[in-house]
Amino acid sequence: MGPNISVITITLNAEKYLEQTIQSVLNQTYDNIQYIIIDGGSTDGTIDIIKKYESKVDYWESEKDTGIYDAMNKGLALTTGSMIGIINADDYYLPHTVQTVIESYKKGNADIYYGDMEILNASPSIVKPNIDKMYEMPSIFHPTCFVKKTVYDNIGKFNPIYKISGDYDFLLRCLKKQMTFYYIPQTFTVFRHGGLSSSCYSNVEGYRIMKEHQTGFHKQVIWRGINCYAKTYLKKIIHLGRS
Questions:
Q1: What is the gyration radius of the CA atoms in the chain, in angstroms?
Q2: pLDDT on residue 206
Q3: 33 has which bridge partners?
Q4: CA nearest neighbour of 41 among 74, 64, 14
Q5: Which strand (E) or helix (H) includes residue 88?
Q6: DSSP character string of 195-240
Q7: Which pLDDT does position 195 carry in this prediction?
Q8: Most-buried pick from 23, 27, 88, 100 (CB within 10 A)?
Q9: Domain boundaries 5-193, corresponding CATH code
Q10: pLDDT value, residue 232
Q11: What's the average pLDDT block by block, 10 residues per block, for the chain (243 residues)?
Q12: CB 35 within 8 A of CB 25
């Protein structure tokens, strides 16, 4: 049996896709996985879905939290694995993901392992990370990352003041502390386009994070944000004109 890996899923009223997320963790080709689900007090059918699989889930809870990164931090406090992955309730892993990470983990000594991501929308596409552009934008995709538990001990957990882009802040902190990143050129995760991470407000948080970390690119994010809000406003005007 190989090293223990912890996987965390955070949920809030996630009944639409949660079962697929859970099954993607439970059906991994690698089976030494501690699975933790942290729910933020769902009022739909989310809890019923979790209970359906609770015999195969190592720990789950449902209580109010202050946001997704507060929930992630709760999950991190419960992990026992030497490496940790976080997969949200509308995304899912491909079956080989954890096994592939373990094989690289056994050969190397990196702090963070990451791969490609499929974006699921009208025209699905594979996106590849680019660590060289991390100071310009979130170009490593957190849903594909597996992080050594010792990294959280050294860097700290997620900053809950951020509501959308706390994972970007965390990865920038890792880069600044010279944590080692190892890219595996395989698709790990399927990400559903939409939700908060795809909203215009993500540019606002991106600006705050990039300015705080003095990346030198925060002004460019202002224009991305203005462009995003302008397009959103234009779409609303067009929709009203047609209705």
A1: 18
A2: 77
A3: 5
A4: 64
A5: none
A6: SGGGSTHHHHHHHHHHHHTT-S-HHHHHHHHHHHHHHHHHHHHHHH
A7: 52
A8: 88
A9: 3.90.550.10
A10: 52
A11: 94 97 98 97 98 98 96 98 96 98 93 96 89 94 97 97 94 97 98 66 78 75 57 54 55
A12: yes
| 152 three-class SS | helix
Closest among 142, 146, 167 to 4, alpha carbons compared: 146
**For residue 126, what pLDDT is reported?**
96
Number of neighbouring beta carbons within 10 Å of residue 64: 10
pLDDT for residue 240: 54
CA atoms within 13 A on the CB side of 222: 5
Q: DSSP for 92-144? A: EE-TTHHHHHHHHHHH---SEEEEEEEEESSS-EEE---GGGTTTS--S-GGG
Closest to 168 (Cα-Cα) out of 137, 194, 146, 130: 137
Whole-number pLDDT of residue 37: 98
Can you give the pLDDT at residue 121?
82
Output the CA torsion sign for 133, 135, 137, 141.
Answer: positive
The single-letter DSSP state of residue 162 is -
Amino acid at 212: E
The reply to whether the predicted model has a pTM over 0.85 is yes
Backbone angles phi, psi at 213, to 5 degrees: -85, 0
